[in-house]
Structures are given as C-alpha cells and as structure tokens.
Design a protein that fits this description.
Blueprint (H helix, E strand, L loop, with lengths): L1 H5 L1 H13 L9 H15 L10 H20 L6 H23 L2 H6 L1 H6 L8 H26 L4 E3 L2 E3 L4 E3 L7 H18 L3 H32 L8 H4 L2 H24 L1
Antiparallel strand pairs: 1-2, 2-3
C-alpha cells in the first residue's frame, strides 16, 4: 500500500497511457489478474509466511527498483513517454516484490511466485523491443501469407512484404504486424499453463506454441483480406475485416490454443 501511494502519480500516467495505446491496453487488468491468481493460490494451498525476512532477496530486488527509478528520473528528458513509464513500472513492481521478501519472507514469495511475477506485465514493452518484434512479425507473417496464397493458387508477385495480386497491391505494414494480439496470446498461454498444467516442460511447450500460432494467424488474416480484394473487389481493403478484424482473428487463434492445451492436459493426466 505504501509503495502504491508513493507511485500514485506514475501509475496514474501509466493507466492513462495504456487506455490510449492499442498495444498496452491490457495493462490495467494485470493487477486484478495477479490478485485473483493469488486468491486462488491461497484457496488451493494456504501460503504460510516464513516469519523471517529475506534480506538478501530484498536488497537484490530493491536494487533493481532503485536502478530503474534513477534511470527514469535521470533520463526522463531524453526518453519517450512509453520508455519512461516502463522504467517507473519496473521500479514499482520491484519495490512491491522487495516488500514481499522483507515482510513475508522467501518461502511465502516462492509459494506466490507466479502471481507476483505476473505483475511484470504492468511494464510496457520498450520502444526498441516493439520495433524489433513488429519487423520480425511482418517478415514472418508475409512468408506465411505467401505460402497460403500459393496453396490457394492465387497469382502472386512478391517483393518482401509487398504482394501484387490480380486486382490490388498489398503491403504488410508495421501496423498490421499483429503484435498486440500475439503479445496478449503469450500472456493468455502463460495463464492457461499455470492454471491447467502441472508439468514445467508442458507449460513451456504451450507458451512456445503461441509464437508460430500468432504468425500463422496473422498470415491467414493477410490471406483472407487479399482473397476478398481479389474476388469481391479492391474496396475490401477498407472493410471492417481489415480495419476492425483483429479481435475476430484473435478469438479464432484461441481455438487451436485451447485444443492443444487440452491435449497436453490429457497427456499429463495419463
């Protein structure tokens, strides 16, 4: 509570920033999800405090917080708003974790590791990481889309992320990289693996599965838009499928994720 009061100003800025950002719109939900995870963890297995502070862990984690806080204050003039808030959020999460080690002990924190660690998703992705992810996603999605177009027999000339189709030329822009959906898919897979799987290596497999799944989903979306432009008309580039179709394709990508998770769970139970 004290840490939250001390960070009320940057946290307010963070929530306002997230409300205006398509990529980081999930951030306001993170504390509530972490709180729910902690609640169900306590219901399943009561967490017992160690009754002894973990000074070493407190010092290490709080050092990360002080470093992030100092960097955010010292470099604020030269940082973008997103990166400044990322440092402030990292400092906040670090101090919350440090308080846990100080007042509750290492055994309690180990038992509540996932809910506490989940708070790291309050930290916005740094600008350079977003640029790299967008570039990689655009190139990978273009490769998958080209494969899909060839499978459908659609005439195609390609130059990198630019597709020349019979009635239109499509360019896979950075805005079409699907980073928001893919990142939320990663978070969803982490939650699902924690809630429904016990084996660590099966959890890793499920989370790793969403990376190619996100790329295939984005390539399929490019295919659908391209085929609509070819067979219905070039005006379909301005249709709701293109402009507002992200949530639909995200939900569509949940189907193979759920099926794969159910298969892993069944294998685990056997």
């Amino acid at each position: 509570m004290v840490v939250t009061l001390g960070f009320v100003q940057p946290l307010t800025r963070l929530m306002l920033h997230a409300a205006q950002s398509e990529l980081h719109s999930y951030i306001p939900l993170v504390p509530f999800v972490a709180g729910y995870l902690l609640y169900i963890q306590i219901q399943r297995r009561p967490l017992v405090a160690a009754h002894r502070s973990s000074i070493g862990a407190t010092v290490i984690v709080s050092s990360i917080g002080f470093a992030a806080l100092a960097a955010g204050i010292g470099l604020r003039e030269g940082l973008r708003v997103n990166d400044d808030l990322a440092l402030m959020a990292l400092a906040y999460v670090s101090f919350v974790a440090a308080g846990g080690f100080l007042f509750l002990g290492s055994k309690w924190m180990a038992a509540a590791a996932f809910p506490v660690a989940f708070l790291i998703f309050m930290v916005p992705l740094p600008g350079r990481a977003v640029n790299w992810m967008e570039t990689a996603s655009v190139l990978a999605s273009a490769d998958v889309a080209a494969l899909f177009f060839n499978m459908t027999g659609t005439p195609l000339l390609r130059d990198g992320p630019v597709f020349a189709l019979p009635t239109i030329v499509l360019s896979v822009a950075r805005e079409c990289s699907g980073i928001h959906s893919s990142w939320v898919l990663v978070i969803t897979s982490l939650l699902a693996s924690h809630l429904f799987l016990e084996s660590p290596w099966r959890r890793i497999i499920l989370v790793a599965f969403v990376i190619p799944l996100g790329i295939v989903r984005n390539g399929f979306r490019i295919l659908v838009i391209g085929l609509l432009c070819v067979h219905v008309g070039p005006h379909m580039i301005d249709s709701i499928i293109h402009r507002r179709g992200g949530p639909f394709f995200f939900v569509l990508s949940l189907v193979p994720l759920i099926v794969f998770m159910a298969w892993l769970r069944r294998q685990e139970q056997q």
